[in-house]
Amino acid sequence: GLGKFELRDKKARPGRDPKSKRDYEIAARRVVTFHPSKVWRDELNNNI
User: Fold this and answer.
1) What are the sequence ranges of the domains in the chain?
2) pLDDT-based confidence at 43, cuts 50/70/90?
3) First to last CA, the chain
4) Which of 27, 32, 33, 44 lies at a C-alpha separation of 20 to 30 Å from 7?
């Protein structure tokens, strides 16, 4: 296969609105990450 998708939990963290300079907390959430298979990763790296 080409690789696999995984869900990762990200912790809450402090953030800042660059326009208003207001501090706030970025909520904890789940994100999707993709991990390519070694075969596909090697093929991509060799063709660059």
Assistant:
1) 3-46
2) confident
3) 21
4) 44
